[in-house]
Design a protein that fits this description.
The protein has one helix spanning 31-41; strands spanning 5-12, 19-26. It is of the alpha+beta class.
Amino acid sequence: MAVQIYTFKITYADCDNKIWRIAAVSSNYTLAELGYMVLASFDTMAI
């Protein structure tokens, strides 16, 4: 099966200034990898 690329616009909702990022991920990413990518895009990490 061919790998697809999905593009997400991620918006930090609890901020007065709308902070957003555009991220492209492979279709073989796991949900955990996607979550860490979202956190890393805002320079934060889960503990």
